[in-house]
């Protein structure tokens, strides 16, 4: 099966770092990667008149940069069944991503975000937050700047068991199978604290995972959820963490919290956000 991966880019090394991670993540399978650039004109100089030819020149420069990215990616790709395409859009970022997903049957969007203070952490900037909140058509994988790809043999799925699990589980299982990864289910609370509804959802999740190696971890709620998740990642050598973006969930709280918006939610590893399929 061929995978279709969207790689939004602003031509920064940060965006290239995420693209390189995606190429290595899908190194062993047929895959088409789409470099997409949302072009908008910003008059940073003192020009009072902008000629159409000047706009054309700027657009052509961006299109040439997309072609250069494709060639750079072909050079580093280890798989002859990797294909690289480019998408130039004059829409805003989120609109361009939505269109690209629909037009190209995209399975996953992979984006880079800058690490805070040079550390290997993920900092959710305004672009990342907007994409997560507004793009509900497929999962989004956020990659810390300069994150070195390593075999993703342990993935974590943080969940509260409060809602039934449906099609949104498929991307998680697909990636775990692709990477031959064990799946570590993280729940902040104890097994005796589950409601009947949560227990039923846990039972259903276990059925979804019957062919997938997995473990369930019950973590006492000591400290903030951010601290608990960060400690779990470090202590269990987790290589990628996943959450489903439900309404009124912990992830939505993180995205809407003013302090988090300013300082960023820090993750030392790639972070996949799966939209809830209502």
UniProtKB/TrEMBL annotation:
Origin superkingdom: Bacteria
Pfam families per UniProt: Usp
InterPro entries: Rossmann-like_a/b/a_fold, Universal_stress_UspA, UspA
Domain (UspA) ranges: 1-144
PANTHER family named among the record's database cross-references: STRESS RESPONSE PROTEIN NHAX, UNIVERSAL STRESS PROTEIN UP12
Family membership noted in the UniProt record: Belongs to the universal stress protein A family.
Protein name, entry field: Universal stress protein
Species annotation: Gelidibacter maritimus
């Amino acid at each position: 099966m061929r995978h279709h991966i969207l790689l939004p880019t602003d031509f920064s090394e940060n965006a290239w770092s995420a693209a390189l991670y995606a190429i290595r993540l899908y190194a062993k399978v047929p895959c088409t990667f789409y470099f997409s650039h949302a072009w908008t004109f910003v008059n940073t100089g003192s020009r009072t008149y902008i000629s159409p030819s000047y706009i054309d020149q700027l657009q052509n420069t961006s299109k040439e940069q997309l072609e250069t990215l494709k060639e750079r990616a072909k050079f580093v790709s280890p798989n002859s069944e990797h294909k690289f395409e480019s998408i130039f859009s004059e829409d805003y970022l989120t609109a361009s991503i939505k269109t690209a997903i629909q037009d190209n049957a995209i399975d996953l969007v992979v984006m880079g975000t800058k690490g805070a203070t040079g550390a290997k952490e993920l900092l959710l900037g305004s672009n990342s937050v907007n994409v997560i909140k507004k793009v509900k058509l497929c999962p989004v994988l956020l990659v810390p700047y300069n994150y070195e790809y390593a075999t993703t043999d342990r993935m974590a799925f943080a969940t509260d068991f409060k809602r039934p699990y449906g099609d949104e589980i498929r991307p998680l299982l697909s990636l775990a199978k692709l990477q031959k990864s064990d799946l570590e289910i993280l729940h902040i609370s104890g097994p005796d604290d589950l409601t009947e509804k949560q227990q039923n959802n846990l039972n259903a999740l276990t059925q979804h995972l019957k062919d997938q190696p997995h473990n369930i971890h019950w973590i006492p709620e000591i400290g903030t959820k951010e601290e608990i998740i960060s400690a779990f990642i470090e202590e269990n050598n987790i290589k990628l963490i996943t959450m489903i973006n439900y309404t009124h969930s912990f992830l939505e709280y993180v995205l809407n919290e003013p302090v988090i918006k300013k300082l960023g939610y820090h993750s030392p590893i790639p972070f996949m956000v799966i939209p809830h399929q209502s």
